[in-house]
Amino acid sequence: MNPIRPAAESDASRIAEILVFNNRLNFYPIFQNDDYSFGELQVVPIAEKYRSDPELLSRTFVYDDGVVRGLIVLEGTEISKLFVDPCFQNRGIGAALLNYAVEVHHADVLWALEKNVRGIRFYERHGFHVTDEKIFEEDTTEYLVRLRRRDSGNYP
Predict the structure, then answer these.
(1) Most exposed among 4, 68, 96, 106, judged by the fewest C-beta atoms under 10 Å?
(2) 32-44 pLDDT, tens per residue?
(3) Three-state SS across the chain?
């Protein structure tokens, strides 16, 4: 049985929880932005955004084997988010979500924070490579790097 399914409105709180915890653990050390990480970034408003935005919900898929353990958000063939609850990392959940996006939705591109070395290594192990494209993360001085699937038609 495939544990990956489209997200439902009832998943909104769990999705928000996973997003908030991952942001605080992985990105707060880089950005050190208390106002964003502990003020603006809150579970209840993020959950409400997912509940009230059917289009966002329709692009979100969850890994649910009885517990929602991770999620992936797609924009066409671009992966815009991929997060696994920190309690369940290193169990193949991220790989399963990524493979699902590639195989079912033909995902072939994503942006990753340049300083997220662990995340970039994960994507490289799964067939993505860092391109020469870089942009600043919105309202910061930190770079995002673009990664592409090696077997996509756009490989240089």
Answers:
(1) 106
(2) 888 888 888 899 9
(3) CCCEEECCHHHHHHHHHHHHHHHHHHHHHHHCCHHHHHHHCCHHHHHHHHHHCHHHHHCEEEEECCCEEEEEEEECCEEEEEEECHHHCCCCHHHHHHHHHHHHHCCCEEEEECCCHHHHHHHHHCCEEEEEEEEECCCCCCEEEEEEECCCCCCC
